[in-house]
Amino acid sequence: MRTCVAALLLAGLTVISPTSAQSIQSIGTSGGNGPKGGIGDCNHPVTTAQAFVTDAVNSEFAKGRQLAKDATPKLLQKHPGGNVWDVVVNAKSGARQEMLGFGHAWTDSTVDVFNQLDADVLDKLMKELYGQDGNNMGLMRHTIGSSDLSGEQYSYDDNGPSFNEGSPDKDLAHFDIGYYGERQAKMIAKMGSYKSDVTLFGSPWSAPSWMKYNGLFIAPNRNVPGGGSYMIANNSFNIDYFNTYAQYFGKYVDAFAKYNVTINAITPQNEPLNYQGGYPCMYLEAADEASLINNGLGEEMKKRGVGIWAYDHNTDQSAYPQRVITGAPGQVQAAAWHCYASPANYTVMSDFHDNNPDIPQFMTECADGSWSSGPHNFVVASNFMEPVTNWGSGAAMWVMATNASYGPHCPYGGCGSCIGSVIVYGPRNYTLTNQYYMIGQFSRYIRRGAINYEVTKGISGTALTNEQFYVNAIKNPDGSWAIVMMNNSNKTQNVVVELDGEQQYWQATVPEFTLNTWLLPAKKSACSNH
Ligand SMILES: *[C@@H]1O[C@H](CO)[C@@H](O)[C@H](O)[C@H]1NC(C)=O
Ligand SMILES: *[C@@H]1O[C@H](CO)[C@@H](O)[C@H](O)[C@H]1NC(C)=O
Ligand SMILES: *[C@@H]1O[C@H](CO)[C@@H](O)[C@H](O)[C@H]1NC(C)=O
Ligand SMILES: *[C@@H]1O[C@H](CO)[C@@H](O)[C@H](O)[C@H]1NC(C)=O
Ligand SMILES: *[C@@H]1O[C@H](CO)[C@@H](O)[C@H](O)[C@H]1NC(C)=O
Ligand SMILES: *[C@@H]1O[C@H](CO)[C@@H](O)[C@H](O)[C@H]1NC(C)=O
Ligand SMILES: CC(=O)N[C@H]1CO[C@H](CO)[C@@H](O)[C@@H]1O
């Protein structure tokens, strides 16, 4: 095992251009024949001011307001004065990054429980997740092979009785996405009938075990943690297999295409610095991620129109994606970040942007779980809003659905208590958790192609502390505004949002302990036919 990431910051390369807007235009969508877009685009323009509110309750059986209509913001000609909470949006020159979307991850647990639903119930749920009257999610991840949210562990070329008992298969003659891969592809393919402009990216938790340094160690009993690739020792990628692994990714993209699932991007490794045993993980040093790209992965993905998103791990080793870009220049489409450094420090995304103004960024994984305690839960809001402030073009929560005991999941380790947006109890019985409504406060109202704007006043504290007020201000393609506000305090506030540059002041109350989204119609429509 090599030593960890060395700090390598590119001093002197800082570009000071607060309005240079990175574009998401080169990132594809997974297709299908379903509708595109939604509220805030030119086919669905916002014509009257509206507000939606979700209480930050901490419960899977959430009660309280959930995407409920809230007090309508009133347009004023001038600032009303008095004791108000002022929010100022730099609408004149504060344009920042282009937005792509918000969403979740397809896991084996999700597919497993969705398969338990009767067809009409699944149809209703898919509309709630992807429909224009539902959450309309636009950014989805899926697991390439098994993750900790898989009841059984496998890769697409185990070449043996189990994930950790295979023999080398250098020509990938035994490549097969198998029962679980097919099941996942078939379920994900349904998504395109509900929404055809979702960006879908895949992430492997591990290469086939025979591509790892510890992979040929046979456990006395494959069900005992500590055997083979469940071991921490030498749980890293064997660099003899760079090109083989690149071909493996190519075959995976082709196999999913056969089920009409278009993969738009991959991360070469989920959490490349996490090599803990117990569930599929793999260590992949930044220089090796770059070498993997240079030794075939870049070419295989380019041929298929699939982007490569570097890193896919926590903000505390922020030099990693820069090292991949430096090592594989011109071949990285985006950088991906997770929320689990304690606490996450999303300002590293602004630093990354300064050095790479044309490379979009995403918050690609954050889990909420039964460990969250206390009366209030701002996990979604906290980990969606700060990445947006710091140049993120979208964000995705982790597992989308589980059964009532937060499974199926790996029995030996990993997350055994992650809560998604959906919990399935039986063929006709599921609940939407409060996480579903929290995600909806973003995914329903912020369109692909929207532009994030600088907020110059009204943010108090950081999104990761209690007792604060946080704002994102995003201009949708129709010229209307989505203003998302988190008030993590016990006080209802009388808020005035000033759109500086449009000479508009909007006023309404923002209740205590809520996430609130205001939709404000365009002063002048940005749509040519209106
Ligand atoms: C780990 O790697 C070292 C050095 O290559 C080797 O000596 C050792 O046998 C490996 N351990 C296992 C369990 O594969
Ligand atoms: C993929 O889509 C094509 C065209 O719509 C259709 O004919 C074919 O049956 C689909 N394949 C699968 C596996 O769903
Ligand atoms: C967060 O990262 C920035 C660099 O972007 C650093 O200056 C700051 O000290 C970090 N904050 C914390 C709390 O670690
Ligand atoms: C959840 O799935 C796991 C694995 O299939 C199973 O052992 C467990 O009993 C299930 N829990 C419920 C409540 O269905
Ligand atoms: C759904 O399942 C839960 C948990 O078993 C149960 O409490 C609830 O009554 C069920 N609801 C319906 C409508 O069957
Ligand atoms: C609100 O929080 C403040 C500071 O923690 C506390 O002093 C006050 O009593 C709280 N008010 C209510 C209504 O809970
Ligand atoms: C608008 C609003 O309610 N802001 C409050 C949110 O929380 C911070 C920290 O407690 C207060 O200072 C704000 O007044």
TrEMBL record:
GO molecular function annotations of the record: glucosylceramidase activity
Glycosyl hydrolase family 30 TIM-barrel domain mapped to chain residues: 101-446
Alphabetically ordered keywords of this record: Glycosidase, Hydrolase, Signal
Domain of life: Eukaryota
Family membership: Belongs to the glycosyl hydrolase 30 family.
Lineage: Eukaryota, Fungi, Fungi incertae sedis, Mucoromycota, Mucoromycotina
Pfam family, one: Glyco_hydro_30
Any Gene Ontology CC annotation: membrane
The keyword Hydrolase appears for this protein: yes
GO biological process: glucosylceramide catabolic process
InterPro entries in the cross-refs: GH (IPR017853), GH30_C (IPR033452), Glyco_hydro_30 (IPR001139), Glyco_hydro_30_TIM-barrel (IPR033453), Glyco_hydro_b (IPR013780)
Organism encoding this protein: Bifiguratus adelaidae
Gene3D superfamilies (alphabetical): Glycosidases (3.20.20.80), Golgi alpha-mannosidase II (2.60.40.1180)
Protein name stated in the entry: Glycosyl hydrolase family 30 TIM-barrel domain-containing protein
Signal sequence interval, chain numbering: 1-21
All copies of domain Glycosyl hydrolase family 30 beta sandwich, residue ranges: 465-512
